[in-house]
Amino acid sequence: MTTPAAPAAPAIEVRGLHKKYGPHAILHDIDLTVQRGEVYALTGPNGAGKSTLIRTVTGLAFPSSGEVRLLGRDVHNDGPRARARLGAVVEAPARFYPQFTGTQNLQIHADLAAMAPGGPRVGKGRIREVLALLELTRMEGRKVAEYSLGQRQRLGVASAILADPQVLILDEPTSGLDALSIGLIHRIVTSLASGGCAVVLSTHHLREIATYAHTVGILTGGRLVDTVDLRARQAAYRFRVDDPVGAAGRLERLPFVQRVSTRTPYAVAHLSSDAHVPDALAQLSAGGFRVYEASPDHFDLYEYYRERVEQA
Ligand SMILES: Nc1ncnc2c1ncn2[C@@H]1O[C@H](COP(=O)(O)OP(=O)(O)OP(=O)(O)O)[C@@H](O)[C@H]1O
Question: What local confidence, expressed as pLDDT, does residue 234 receive?
Answer without folding.
Answer: 62
